[in-house]
Amino acid sequence: MSDVTIYHNPKCGTSRNTLAMIRNAGIEPNVVLYLETPPSRATLQALLKQAGIGVRDALREKGTPYQELGLDDASLSDDALLDAIEQHPILLNRPFVSTPLGARLCRPSELVLDILPAPQQGAFAKEDGEAVIDAQGKRIQK
C-alpha cells in the first residue's frame, strides 16, 4: 500500500496533472475518487490541519451548490461547512494529496512537488503543454 494518497477527480485537469507528477516520481499512489468515496469528516479535518488551511480555503465554488447553499455567509462555522461538504462532496476542492512529508491542496498542481518523498524521474509537461520538469528531473523555474 502506498503512503501517498490523492483525493482525485479524473474530470479535473489539475487533478490529472497532479496524479501524473506523482507517477513521474515513480510513485503509484492510493487514488481515492473522492466524489464516489468521500473522506470521512475526521480524515478531512486531519488533511486540512496537515495542509495548514481552514475549511473555507478548501471549498470549491465553481460548478457546485456553493451559492445555493449560502456558503458565502462568513458567519457559518467550520462544522456547518464540513456538514455541507459531507452532503455534497463536490464542494471539496481538489486534488488533496497526503504523503509522509505533509498534505497539500495542489492548486496549482506543482504544489505536489513540495511534498513528494521521491524526486521526479524525467521531464514532465502539463496537459496544456506547460513544461514543469526538465529532462534531469528538476523543476523549471518561471
Automatic annotation (TrEMBL):
GO-annotated molecular function: arsenate reductase (glutaredoxin) activity
PANTHER family named in the record: ARSENATE REDUCTASE, ARSENATE REDUCTASE-RELATED
Pfam families named in the record: ArsC (PF03960)
UniProtKB keywords: Arsenical resistance, Oxidoreductase
EC assignment: 1.20.4.1
Name of the molecule in the record: Arsenate reductase
Top enzyme class: oxidoreductase
CDD domains: ArsC_ArsC (cd03034)
UniProt record similarity statement: Belongs to the ArsC family.
GO biological process, one term: response to arsenic-containing substance
InterPro entries: Arsenate_reductase, Arsenate_reductase-like, Thioredoxin-like_sf
Catalytic activity annotation: [glutaredoxin]-dithiol + arsenate + glutathione + H(+) = glutathionyl-S-S-[glutaredoxin] + arsenite + H2O
Domain of life the protein comes from: Bacteria
